[in-house]
Amino acid sequence: MGVYEELQRRGLIAQTTDEEKIRDLINSGKAVFYIGFDPTADSLHVGHFMALCLMKRLQMAGNKPIALIGGGTGMIGDPSGKTDMRKMLTKEDIDHNCECFKKQMSRFIDFSEGKALMVNNAEWLLDLNYVELLREVGACFSVNRMLTAECYKQRMEKGLSFLEFNYMIMQSYDFFSLYKRYGCNLQFGGDDQWSNMLGGTELIRRKLGKDSYAMTINLLLNSEGKKMGKTEKGAVWLDAAKTTPYDFFQYWRNVDDKDVIKCLKMLTFVPIEEIEAMEKWEGSELNKAKEILAFELTKLVHGQEEADKALEAARAIFSAGSDSENMPSSEITEADMPEGKIGLIDLIHLVKLAPSKAEARRLVQQNGIAVNDQKINDVKAEISKDDFAESGYIIIKKGKKVFHKVILK
Question: How many degrees, rounded to 5, is the angle at CA 218 between CA 147 and CA 125?
Answer without folding.
Answer: 50
